[in-house]
Amino acid sequence: MLPLLGFGLLSLVLSSYAASLDVPPAASFWVPSLPDIHQDPLHPLNIYAGHLSSDPHASEANPADVTAHLYFVMVKNRRHADKERVMFWFNGGPGCSSFDGLMMEVGPWRMDGKGGFNVAEGGWEEYTTMVYVDQPAGTGFSYTSTNRYVHTLEEASSQFIEFLRNFYRVFPELKRMDTYLGGESYAGQYIPYFANAVLHSELNIPLMGAAIGNGWIDARRQYPSYLDFAVKVGILEQNSDAWKEAKKRTDECMAEVEAITGMEPISVPSCEGLLLDVTKIRERDGPDGQKMCINIYDVRYDDVQPACGMNWPPDIKPVTDYLDRKDVVNALHAQDHSQSWVECRGRIHQELHERQSNSSITVIPSVLERIPVLIFAGDQDLICNYVGLESMINAMTWNGETGLGKVQTRSWSVAGTPAGTWVTSRNLTYAKIFNASHMAPFNLPHVTHDMILRFMGVNFSAILEGSARIPSSVGSDSKVVYQEASTETAAPVPTGKTPQQDKAMWEAYYNAGSAALVLVIIFLVIGGCLWCRHRRRRNLQLPVNQDEENIPLTMNQEHNESKEFRSRKGKEKATEVDEDEDSPIFNVGDSDDEDTYRDRRRD
Ligand SMILES: *[C@@H]1O[C@H](CO)[C@@H](O)[C@H](O)[C@H]1NC(C)=O
Ligand SMILES: *[C@@H]1O[C@H](CO)[C@@H](O)[C@H](O)[C@H]1NC(C)=O
Ligand SMILES: *[C@@H]1O[C@H](CO)[C@@H](O)[C@H](O)[C@H]1NC(C)=O
Ligand SMILES: *[C@@H]1O[C@H](CO)[C@@H](O)[C@H](O)[C@H]1NC(C)=O
């Protein structure tokens, strides 16, 4: 009965969409299921995915041109907090896919060791609708013709804004939700630019904040920090011979940086080899006669040369295999992207002419005048390490003062364990995360989730389940932890929502009139009944893993990838950029030399 009614409504809505809009209807993005993702059948995730036209000049293009189409995966919030929120997530590179975030970090899944994935607690979709965006075009499942690659951060921003315009035409109900940008590593460049572009656009969306994890923001502070960090974590001993050599290399690099005037560099080619030079002392022979070096994303580990961290985390192999499956590509509505998914596409990095854009450090102060920004840092990361981020914050002038000023840095604990430190000053929050890598949410999902809920100002008194039961505190400010008095007194409304939320929800349904929401209503009705039954059986265990660390560094070696990496990295990068200028036009996607490549400032 119910499904029949649902399909009737669906076709009605579909036909009205086809008549009025040239973006596909929301229902065409709906992902009812994914192969080998073992979901709770009672609480299936609500997923949408696909391509959206994202070329701001598409209307002037020849109809035969392949214009930019960014790709997204949206996972709707599983539970309701005090209000509805949406976050757009970006991994870095440049050229690295946001499937890193989705499949290994802040998303709802973790690999099951059998080629599939289990749904896990700790994902940010618990209370926030998460939209993972593959950008700039050519990254991940996104595509464009090779003569239309993005060359500057300004172009990347226009592409993202055009993506948003079309995204909100498909999902108008998201436009009024509190909106956040989040990401890591090279997204430390994207996010301030994107935030600025959104704030100056006609989109008129409530952008409430931006969060950047181990971001590459300020080359001037980050390059010299390799040496300081290496001393701090005990890789180098001050004044030792190895230290003196590393210092010499650092000074040479800094002379190059200082010679650049008139703009803040995003990167300096002759400094790119510095992080491995500084940590040369960690080079050794491995058990199989392989040469080993430091894992630049987590200094607690080593990796084989020349990968030095590219093989980490071990999830990258199963994720790549999974996304190469035809059934998966079809289920994700990614079939318009003709090639295999690769985590990072070197070509995208080469095409981004960094010398033409100011580093985002010049943009962040104006963003901070308008919205709060969270800088967070796993303390075991070398490549975008916290020492450099702290020196960047100390040197930055924003909202009328330089540095954090007199505010107190407070200790932060999650589930009774020290999680890190926390400090906020004039709209900037800095959170240092203990015992976490470059991909902090990979190591400590519950800690990083607590962090983002705090940053977004989620009213902890208003949340009831899952992470609501994990205690946490910053200084003396303790989270209100939900106590279930007894199953008898459980909230009568199945979704546990407030009347305001219900009102907002129904308003959204009427305004949107999208097929997607019709489906949501049907699922709420069915799901609500099932949920009621399930809730009574629910046991009250704390869903937190006391020991979240579980990072076996498998030494899975991919020789091709490693060789590729060596030829693309370090000081050779600059010359390669120039060689690649005359790329074939009207070639969709990437040439055959496109391949697996992970940039050192990736993710
Ligand atoms: C870069 O930023 C600096 C300082 O904000 C400014 O003086 C300079 O004009 C900018 N350069 C470019 C190319 O945008
Ligand atoms: C901080 O952000 C808010 C918006 O959340 C904004 O109104 C305010 O002007 C910003 N500046 C300062 C100094 O707090
Ligand atoms: C985590 O970090 C803290 C502070 O740096 C340290 O005291 C503690 O031993 C670390 N725990 C583990 C398991 O490494
Ligand atoms: C937080 O939520 C609780 C429970 O819904 C409510 O009583 C309280 O007023 C809320 N606090 C704020 C600051 O909105």
TrEMBL record:
One of its GO terms (molecular function) is serine-type carboxypeptidase activity. SUPFAM superfamilies: alpha/beta-Hydrolases. It catalyses: Preferential release of a C-terminal arginine or lysine residue. PANTHER family: PHEROMONE-PROCESSING CARBOXYPEPTIDASE KEX1, SERINE PROTEASE FAMILY S10 SERINE CARBOXYPEPTIDASE. Its main location: Golgi. Keywords: Apoptosis, Carboxypeptidase, Glycoprotein, Golgi apparatus, Hydrolase, Membrane, Protease, Signal, Transmembrane, Transmembrane helix. GO terms for biological process: apoptotic process; proteolysis. Protease with a carboxypeptidase B-like function involved in the C-terminal processing of the lysine and arginine residues from protein precursors. Promotes cell fusion and is involved in the programmed cell death. The chain crosses the membrane at residues 508-532. One of its GO terms (cellular component) is trans-Golgi network. This is Carboxypeptidase. Belongs to the peptidase S10 family. Its EC number is 3.4.16.-. It holds the Pfam family Peptidase_S10. Coiled coil: none annotated. Residues 551-603 are annotated as: Disordered. Residues 558-576 have a biased composition (Basic and acidic residues). It is an enzyme of class 3 (hydrolase). Residues 1-18 form the signal peptide. The keyword Protease applies. PROSITE patterns: CARBOXYPEPT_SER_HIS, CARBOXYPEPT_SER_SER. It is a single-pass type I membrane protein. It is found in: Golgi apparatus, trans-Golgi network membrane.
